[in-house]
Design a protein that fits this description.
transferase; two-stranded antiparallel sheet; 424 residues; mainly alpha; single chain; transmembrane; 20 helices
């Protein structure tokens, strides 16, 4: 394609118009399908209703953390995020009726997913504008089938925006402001703090400082716009993970959730924290190893998986962080004509698409901790088991793919090469 700025600009307009139209169509399809499904209709907009109530509470001058929305399915559901999140997202959304708000929210979430796919393709080395445009729309459609995305749309969750903010800091040549996306994401929901830890362990001091300052800026804004709520949230409420729901519930795909189901109880013991601490340190070590071998992106992936594993609660929709890895692996399989990488990518796609525990009759939210056989425990913890396997085997694969830092830099630098040498 011509490199003329006018042509490039026209293609960008066409690309993002196609993304918006596709996102709207997918949001409408999701609404039609899931509101008619006996199982998922009970869960439709379950989190969005809390978000809208938080926006209304801010407008009414009430306390965000006294807010409790009663769900027929899940019981009392409190607001969990910092005040700024409600201000930025949910106050404007709360002016809309629930049906319209759901359609708008899911459409914008899917546009953000399109942006995630577009960024991931760029990181993977796809430089031809037409190919990248077509693959972005195709990737958006395919990614919408992934379980984390489906659950995000059903519940009306926020995680796609957080992923997009973080991924902006891992795109090629992010510039002097690298770290701002991570810091803002952490200020909207604290779980992206794991990426600040990644910047620290990889000694990316400037980006780490920028991320910390951006995060601190969001906290300052919290206290400016909602001082009482901010004092309550940052004064200790942020550490009360039990407010997010039952740790042993099957959709909790964190390591803590898996341990709770094995031990048939949701109470944290001190040795649990030791296990989570060891996994956290190991996962960050894997991320640092990937970075030293020249792949900052694989470092991001390892840090994301680590954060999902060690968080007390990682619901299925939190695992949207695997999407960039799936895109990157698919492009690499094509580039290297590698059957092995293609098979692994397909297997990962299946793991993150099929809700296996439902197929074998394992309950989602049992009235008491579950007594499961060993094979059922594995099925009930497919995401954390897969995450642990990736962290354990990943360094071996990285060592083979990137024998040393100079070789890995040459291999990964295709994402910065001219179109003629990048994926077309």
């Amino acid at each position: 394609m011509s490199s003329h700025p006018e042509s490039r600009g026209r293609l960008q307009v066409i690309t993002w118009s196609a993304v918006v139209v596709t996102a709207l169509a997918l949001a409408l399809i999701a609404s039609y399908v899931y509101t008619r499904d006996p199982y998922w209709s009970l869960r439709w907009t379950v989190d969005l209703k809390v978000y809208l109530a938080s926006g209304q509470t801010v407008r009414d001058g009430g306390s965000l953390y006294d807010l409790v929305v009663m769900s027929p399915l899940y019981g009392p559901m409190p607001y969990l995020y910092p005040p700024l999140t409600a201000m930025l997202f949910f106050v404007p959304l709360s002016f809309l009726p629930i049906g319209t708000a759901s359609l708008v929210w899911n459409t914008v979430s899917l546009v953000a997913l399109g942006a995630v796919v577009w960024l991931s393709l760029g990181i993977a080395g796809v430089r031809n504008p037409r190919n990248r445009a077509v693959l972005t729309v195709a990737g958006l459609i395919l990614a919408s089938f992934l379980l984390p995305v489906r659950v995000q749309l059903i519940a009306g969750q926020i995680n796609m925006f957080l992923l997009l903010l973080v991924l902006l800091d891992f795109r090629p040549n992010p510039g002097r402001w690298r770290g701002v996306g991570i810091g803002i994401a952490a200020g909207l929901k604290v779980t992206p703090l794991i990426f600040i830890a990644y910047l620290v362990v990889t000694r990316q001091w400037k980006a780490a400082r920028t991320a910390v300052l951006a995060f601190a800026g969001t906290v300052v804004l919290d206290f400016i716009v909602a001082p009482a709520d901010s004092a309550e949230y940052w004064g200790g409420l942020v550490l009360h993970s039990s407010r997010a729901g039952g740790v042993f519930d099957t959709p909790n795909q964190s390591l803590a959730g898996a341990m709770a189901r094995v031990l048939e109880g949701g109470a944290f013991s001190q040795w649990w924290l030791v296990v989570l601490g060891v996994v956290g340190l190991y996962g960050l070590a894997v991320a640092a190893y990937a970075f030293r071998r020249g792949s900052d992106f694989l470092g991001f992936c390892a840090a994301a998986i680590t954060g999902l594993l060690v968080s007390p609660v990682s619901w299925e929709h939190h695992w949207v962080y695997v999407i960039p890895l799936l895109v990157w692996l698919a492009v690499r399989a094509h580039r290297q004509r590698s059957t092995a990488i293609a098979v692994v990518t397909a297997l990962l796609a299946v793991v993150f698409t099929v809700r296996v525990f439902m197929l074998v009759g394992i309950q989602e939210s049992p009235p008491e901790p579950m007594d499961l056989a060993a094979w059922q425990q594995v099925v009930a913890a497919m995401f954390p088991v897969t995450g642990l396997v990736l962290l354990l085997l990943g360094p071996l694969w990285i060592r083979r793919q990137f024998p040393d830092r100079s070789t890995s830099i040459r291999a990964s630098s295709q994402e910065f090469l001219p179109e003629s040498t990048a994926v077309r």
